[in-house]
Design a protein that fits this description.
By secondary structure, the chain is an alpha/beta fold. The chain is built from 13 helices and 7 strands. The protein is elongated and about 85 Å long.
C-alpha cells in the first residue's frame, strides 16, 4: 500500500517484478539501476542462491516526476521465481501498488509462465485484490533469442485482457524503461482514482509574492474588533537603551501628577500586557499558551517562546481530529514546510529573534486556519 508523507509532500509506491525463475527479473532491475542517475536511486540489495538469483528481494528506490506537486518515490522489488519460495513471494507482494510480469519468450518456458501468472493471481486474491483491477504491465523478455515465440502467441496465451505489454531485452536494456514508465503511470492513475495522492496546494493569486500575503489578509480580518484601536501592538520595538549623545539635553521626564489626582502606572507595572496579535487569534483553550509565547518574546527569551509556540501548535492541530501531525496539518491547510521548520527550531540549542518571530507567525497561521474551519472560537477580552 502506498504511503503519503504530507509534510514532505512525497508519495512512496511499491512495484513488484513477478515471473518464473530466470525469466529476467533481476537483470531488469539491474538495468534500471544502471540507467537511473545516482542522485535519484538508492542502494540495490540482492541475495543469490543456487537455484535462483533472488531469494528474498531486490530493492531499488527511484524518484520520478511530481504528481499534484508531490514527489513520487518508487520502491522496486523482485520476487523469487521458483515455486517452493511462494511464502517469500507473498511477503514481497504484500502492499504492492503495481506489478510488472516478466515472461520468458522461449517456448519451453510457457508452462512456467502460465504457472507463475496463476500464482500471482492467487496470491493477490488472498489479499482481496482481483488481478483484472490491479495495475499490471507485461514484459516479453529475451526477445533477442532466435527461439523466442512471436508476440502474438505470447499475448494469446498470457495476456488475454490486453494490458500494456513490451518487448524487452533485460541484458541490453531495450524496452525496460518503457515498461517501468507504463506501470508508473498506471499506479499513479490508480492512486488518483482512490484519492490517495493529495490535491495540489492552492496557488497564490496574481500579485501575491507567496502564501504570506493571503495569510496577512486573513490575520487582519480575524483581528478586526479583537483589540482596541488605542491598544499598542504587543510586539512593538523595545526602546533603545543607548546613552544620550554628549551635549544632548536630558530626556524629558513625565510631569508630576496634580495634587489629589492618582498617578496611572504603565501596563508593565500593573502586570497587564497589551493583547497581542497571537493571543487575539487564540482559541480559549490556547489563550494562555499564546500569552506565554508573546511574553517570552517580549522578554527576549526566544527558546521559551519557540517551545510555547510548538506546544500550542500541536494542541491546535489536535483540534482537527485524530491522526499524525502531518495529517492534521493537511486537513487544516497548514503549510507542511513551515511546520517542519518550527519542529526543527524546537530542537535547536540556540535561537535568534527571527526564529521566535517565525514561530509566532506559524502559530498565528494555525489559529487562523482553526477560525476558518469553525473550530473552537477564540477568547475575547
Amino acid at each position: 500500500m502506498s504511503s503519503v508523507n504530507l509534510v514532505a509532500r512525497e508519495v512512496a509506491v511499491k512495484i513488484v517484478f513477478y515471473g518464473p525463475g530466470l525469466s529476467g527479473k533481476t537483470s531488469t532491475l539491474r538495468k534500471v539501476f544502471e540507467t537511473v542517475r545516482p542522485a535519484h536511486r538508492g542502494e540495490m540489495m540482492s541475495i543469490a542462491t543456487e537455484g535462483d538469483r533472488t531469494l528474498f528481494f531486490d530493492f531499488l528506490p527511484v524518484k520520478v516526476e511530481r504528481v499534484n506537486d508531490c514527489t513520487v518515490r518508487l520502491a522496486l522489488y523482485t520476487v523469487p521465481g521458483q515455486v517452493f519460495y511462494n511464502a517469500t513471494r507473498k511477503l514481497v507482494l504484500q502492499g504492492a501498488d503495481g506489478v510488472v510480469f516478466v515472461a520468458d519468450s522461449q517456448p519451453e518456458m510457457m508452462d512456467a509462465n502460465r504457472e507463475s501468472l496463476a500464482n500471482l493471481e492467487e496470491n493477490l486474491l488472498e489479499q482481496g485484490i482481483r488481478l483484472e483491477r490491479f495495475p499490471l504491465v507485461v514484459q516479453w523478455n529475451k526477445r533477442d533469442l532466435p527461439s523466442a515465440l512471436s508476440v502474438e502467441a505470447l499475448r494469446e496465451a498470457l495476456n488475454p485482457r490486453g494490458v500494456p505489454d513490451f518487448e524487452t531485452e533485460a541484458v541490453s536494456g531495450r524496452g525496460v524503461m518503457d515498461a517501468l514508465k507504463a506501470i508508473t503511470r498506471l499506479v499513479i492513475q490508480d492512486l488518483r482514482a482512490k484519492k490517495i495522492v493529495p490535491p495540489p496546494r492552492v496557488v497564490p493569486p496574481p500579485g501575491a509574492a507567496s502564501g504570506r500575503g493571503n495569510l496577512e489578509a486573513q490575520l487582519s480580518q480575524h483581528l478586526v474588533g479583537r483589540a482596541s484601536p488605542a491598544t499598542p501592538p504587543a510586539m512593538a520595538p523595545r526602546p533603545s537603551r543607548s546613552m544620550p549623545a554628549i551635549g544632548a539635553p536630558p530626556p524629558a521626564q513625565p510631569p508630576l501628577p496634580e495634587p489629589g489626582v492618582p498617578a496611572t502606572a504603565p501596563p508593565s507595572l500593573t502586570g497587564q500586557r497589551p493583547l497581542g496579535a497571537t493571543s487575539a487569534l487564540a482559541p480559549s483553550d490556547l489563550f494562555d499558551h499564546a500569552r506565554a509565547a508573546e511574553g517570552a518574546f517580549a522578554a527576549g527569551d526566544y527558546a521559551t517562546c519557540i517551545q510555547a509556540c510548538l506546544d500550542a501548535a500541536r494542541r491546535g492541530l489536535a483540534l482537527a481530529g485524530e491522526g499524525s501531525l502531518a495529517a492534521q496539518a493537511y486537513l487544516l491547510h497548514v503549510d507542511g514546510g513551515d511546520l517542519l521548520k518550527l519542529q526543527t527550531l524546537g530542537a535547536r540549542s540556540s535561537h535568534r529573534v527571527d526564529d521566535a518571530a517565525f514561530a509566532l507567525y506559524v502559530l498565528m497561521h494555525i489559529f487562523t486556519r482553526l477560525h476558518t474551519a469553525g473550530l473552537p472560537a477564540p477568547a475575547t477580552e
